């Protein structure tokens, strides 16, 4: 306002001065008065200019003072605001860091709690698993009482002495049994009758048309007994109602025992009859396995007794009778264990209740699942922490931005260094936040790892089993570098080399059911009784050692089931000491062929050092088409030392198989286009050409054998041990004949001879040696009394192979 007033005064003074000068100059004359007024106006102008100048100076000075005051005030305000902003940022960030640290600590605590709860849940599932196993054992004990008949089946896993039990190619060494020798009893191999349960086209018919002995007569095998030997005879026959089948035998040693394991009555239907003989430990031993019918009828030519046999053979299962005692002992032990189990069930229940109490909090969130939900919850907490961190970062960034704006506004005045300090402190805050973020990320990584390991699990027990399987897998990887398969021809690429099959067999590459070209062995069974596939020879193992059996299988849908057995022995010849049932699979089931994971089973050899394997096709289901889906396929059979699990198949070392040439543990075999073949191996040299009955070995043997007859019409048998070279020949490839050499009898009175016959029995393997049977019968008749007496016959045994 002062400046405005001075400017007005100057303007008025200048206007008055101009006015006076104009008036004085109007007439061209300036009077003294006019000159005076002009001077006064000039003086007033000068005064106004001076005041204005003074006012300007004061205004400028005042403005400078006020400017400086404003600058000082702004600087102080900026400093205060910056300090306030810094302190606010520090307090806020420190509070947020404390909050985050607390949350991180809570996350880590929750992880520890989760680990502890998992441990508790594992303990729970272990208890549950133990409880289930104990209940299963109780069920096994109950089942043992209901499965007595299975003992006969288990015991029939011995060595089959007569290998054509369904009479496909022979009468399977069945002979007519009639001690009267009057021809009233006959045994005939005929075309099978309607309803015959086997897939063979033949059966045996036994007919009695008159008096016979014993009872109605029957048939016999005549296998030789020996000390402590055990024989099981299995017969499937159709015996008329009202008749019973009986067992008869010559001497079986001192204290021998025998019994039927099934009923013996005829039902008019096809029935299974099983008989067990345990020979004595010393004394006299002779032939056995004689069977005859008994009843109240009187057979005649017009009213004969006729019965049929679909299956008949004898198994040598020496020492397997101990399985009865073992079974009884195990049942007694199991019952004691059951009593202990029942006593401890309350304790187990209390432990379970305690565990459930301890884990109730986690079960609220886990719901019995493998911590999946808790992991999700922790992940959500981590996500919340990360969101908080993002918010902190944004606020710090905002604080930094404001500081930078403030720095720009004060134009390097007063608080420049403070702003630099703020930037340094903000950087430190960001460094701390990065550390926290890394800790949270590490925590989240641990959670994700845990989540990944149990994501597919349903229970904590599965999680534990997963961890255990990883350890097992690592063990298997470490062990596979030294794996050696003990099973020869495990893929059946060599056909039945090293194997024996009791039914129709096929082998070759197969693409069905997921085998994808694997070479398989297959057993066909269109009957309702089992057909077996078993190892031809045992293989050596170490005592008291764990081994793993692996194999692939497929049971076609119309088959009742398949069973697999491991048979242990202390001898190479097949005297089984223990039979282990590996598994049973029902029709339609198979191994995991999709992922090429074989069925795997571990066993311990105990005090045995020889092992056989056996696979059974248990026959067709009722009311199914017997010509469809009747095969059992087996492939990649392997036995490895140790518990190695379901590893990939490794063939036995040193094996080569193709269509014409085979080389393995049995030796060398070469086939020719004509069908002829040649083989060199441990069992000697063999050559075969089409049309030959047996392969030719160039082996022969002759021996004179003396036999005393008893004067009846019955054959008296003599068992002759053949030379060692025949021990390497399969008995089925050995031919024996006999001829009469001489006979004599000293009586000192007239007599006439009649009915002297020389024959042969069977060829068999026993005690590691090969035996052949020679049989004679004959008598002489006293011319005066017409009584008969026995005599001494010398026969010549002829053996070729």
UniProtKB/TrEMBL annotation:
Q: Does the keyword Nucleotidyltransferase apply?
A: no
Q: Which SUPFAM superfamilies match?
A: Galactose-binding domain-like, Tropomyosin
Has UniProt tagged this entry with the keyword Ribosomal protein? no
Q: Which domain of life is it from?
A: Bacteria
Record keywords, A-Z: Coiled coil
Coiled-coil spans in chain? 31-58, 324-351
Mind telling me what this protein is named?
DUF1983 domain-containing protein
Q: Which organism is it from?
A: Clostridium perfringens
């Amino acid at each position: 306002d002062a400046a405005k007033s001075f400017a007005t005064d100057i303007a008025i003074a200048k206007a008055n001065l101009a006015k006076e000068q104009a008036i004085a100059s109007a007439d061209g004359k300036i009077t003294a008065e006019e000159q005076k007024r002009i001077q006064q106006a000039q003086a007033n102008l000068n005064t106004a200019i001076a005041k204005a100048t003074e006012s300007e100076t004061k205004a400028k000075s005042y403005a400078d003072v006020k400017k400086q005051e404003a600058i000082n005030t702004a600087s102080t305000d900026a400093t205060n605001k910056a300090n306030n902003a810094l302190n606010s940022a520090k307090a806020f960030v420190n509070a947020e860091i404390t909050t985050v640290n607390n949350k991180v600590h809570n996350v880590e605590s929750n992880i520890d709690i989760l680990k502890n709860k998992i441990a508790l849940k594992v303990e729970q599932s272990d208890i549950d698993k133990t409880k289930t196993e104990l209940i299963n054992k109780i069920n096994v004990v109950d089942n043992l009482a209901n499965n007595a008949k299975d003992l006969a089946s288990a015991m029939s896993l011995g060595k089959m002495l007569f290998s054509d039990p369904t009479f496909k190619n022979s009468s399977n060494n069945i002979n007519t049994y009639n001690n009267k020798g009057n021809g009233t009893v006959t045994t005939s191999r005929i075309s099978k009758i309607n309803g015959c349960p086997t897939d063979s086209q033949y059966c045996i018919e036994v007919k009695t048309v008159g008096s016979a002995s014993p009872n109605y007569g029957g048939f016999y095998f005549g296998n030789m007994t020996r000390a402590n030997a055990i024989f099981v005879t299995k017969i499937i026959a159709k015996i008329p109602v009202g008749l019973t089948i009986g067992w008869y035998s010559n001497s079986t040693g001192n204290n021998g025992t025998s019994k039927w394991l099934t009923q013996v009555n005829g039902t008019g239907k096809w029935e299974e009859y099983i008989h067990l003989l345990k020979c004595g430990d010393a004394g006299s031993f002779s032939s056995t396995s004689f069977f005859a019918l008994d009843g109240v009828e009187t057979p005649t030519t017009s009213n004969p007794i006729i019965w049929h046999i679909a299956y008949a053979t004898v198994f040598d299962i020496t020492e397997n009778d101990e399985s009865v005692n073992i079974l009884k002992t195990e049942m007694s032990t199991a019952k004691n264990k059951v009593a202990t189990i029942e006593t401890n069930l309350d304790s187990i229940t209390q432990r379970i209740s305690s565990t459930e109490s301890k884990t109730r909090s986690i079960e609220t969130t886990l719901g019995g699942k493998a911590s999946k939900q808790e992991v999700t919850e922790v992940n959500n907490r981590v996500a919340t922490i990360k969101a908080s961190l993002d918010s902190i970062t944004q606020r710090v960034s905002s604080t930094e931005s404001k500081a930078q704006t403030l720095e720009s506004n004060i134009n390097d005045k007063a608080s420049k260094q403070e702003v630099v300090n703020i930037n340094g402190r903000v950087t430190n805050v960001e460094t701390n936040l990065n550390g926290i973020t890394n800790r949270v990320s590490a925590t989240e990584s641990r959670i994700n790892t845990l989540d990944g390991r149990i994501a597919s699990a349903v229970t904590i027990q599965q999680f534990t089993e997963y961890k255990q399987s990883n350890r097992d897998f690592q063990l298997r990887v470490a062990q596979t570098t030294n794996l050696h398969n003990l099973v020869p021809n495990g893929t059946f690429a060599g056909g039945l080399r090293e194997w024996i099959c009791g039914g129709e067999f096929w082998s070759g590459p197969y693409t069905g059911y997921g085998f994808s070209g694997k070479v398989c062995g297959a057993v066909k069974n269109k009957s309702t009784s089992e057909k077996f596939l078993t190892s031809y020879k045992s293989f050596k193992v170490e005592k008291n050692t764990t081994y793993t059996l692996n194999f692939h299988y497929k049971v076609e849908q119309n088959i009742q089931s398949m069973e697999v057995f491991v048979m242990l022995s202390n001898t190479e010849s097949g005297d089984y000491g223990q039979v282990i049932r590996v598994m049973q699979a029902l029709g339609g089931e198979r191994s995991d062929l999709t992922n090429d994971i074989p069925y795997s089973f571990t066993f311990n050899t105990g005090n045995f050092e020889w092992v056989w394997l056996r696979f059974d096709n248990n026959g067709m289901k009722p009311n199914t088409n017997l010509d469809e889906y009747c095969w059992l396929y087996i492939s990649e059979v392997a036995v490895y030392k140790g518990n190695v699990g379901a590893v990939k198949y490794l063939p036995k070392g040193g094996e080569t198989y193709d269509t014409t040439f085979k080389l393995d543990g049995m030796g060398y075999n070469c086939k020719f286009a004509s069908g002829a073949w040649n083989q060199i191996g441990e069992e000697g040299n063999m050559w075969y050409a089409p049309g030959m009955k047996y392969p030719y070995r160039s082996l022969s043997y002759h021996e004179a054998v003396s036999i005393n007859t008893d004067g009846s019409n019955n054959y008296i048998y003599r068992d002759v041990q053949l030379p060692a070279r025949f021990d390497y020949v399969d008995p089925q490839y050995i031919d024996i004949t006999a001829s009469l050499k001489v006979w004599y009898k000293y009586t000192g009175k007239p007599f006439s001879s009649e009915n002297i016959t020389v024959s042969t029995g069977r060829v068999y393997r026993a005690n590691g040696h090969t035996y052949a049977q020679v049989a004679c019968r004959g008598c002489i008749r006293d011319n005066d009394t017409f009584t008969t007496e026995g005599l001494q016959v010398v026969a010549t045994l002829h053996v070729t192979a």
